[in-house]
Amino acid sequence: MSQGVVSKMYSSRRAGFLLSFLIVISAFSPLISTASATGLVELSLSNQHLLISPGTTANVTLTVHNNDTQINDYTVDINPNYNSAWNVSLVDSVIEDVLPTFSSSTTIVVTLDSLALLSDQTIVELLVNQSGSVANATIELTLSIQPHYEASIDISNVGVEGLILVNPGTTIDVNIDVMNLGNMNDTILLDVVDEPNLVQWWDDYNSG
Q1: Host domain of residue 200
Q2: Which residues are 178's β-sheet partners?
Q3: Which of 145, 163, 190 is a domain's end point?
C-alpha cells in the first residue's frame, strides 16, 4: 500500500472522529449551558434611585421578565434590613401566569417619615423567586432624601396670644421658640420685614 493511500485513510479516520465528537457535543450542549438559574428571571425598576421629600409617598414599578420556556408564577419579597425612616410595601407580592419571553409588573409603595434626615438614605433589596423552581433574582432600590429647609417661630407662650404689655420708657425681653423643621443644618436669620397696621391689628384682635 502506497504512502499516499495510507495518508488519505488516516485523514478520513481523523475527519470521522472529529465529526463524531461534534455530534456528541451538540447532543449534550443543553446540559452544559453556561446560563445560570438566575438568568431565567430578569428584573428591572422604573426608577432605581428614588429621591423624595420627608412626609411624602412615591411608587416604583418592579418588572419581572420570564426568560424561561414555560409559563411561570413569581413571589416577591422585600429584605427588611433597611433604614426604619422608610416604609416599603408591595401592592402584589405574587405575580402569576407570566408567559415565556413576556413580562409582568407590580408596584412598590415607598413612604418616608416626616422627620427623616439626609443620613437616613438606604438601600432596599428585592428578591424574586420563580415558583416551583430554584430560579431567582435580586435587584436593589436606592432611597434618598430630598434636602428640605423650613423654619418655624412659635409665639404661643409669649404674652397673651402674642400680645405683650410694655409700659412707656421700659424695655422687655421676649423669648420666642425658633424651630428648624427641615432636614438640613440651617442658619435662621430673624428680622422685621415690615411694620404692622396697628389699627387693623387691634380691630382684628378685639373682634376675635
Answers
A1: 149-208
A2: 153
A3: 145
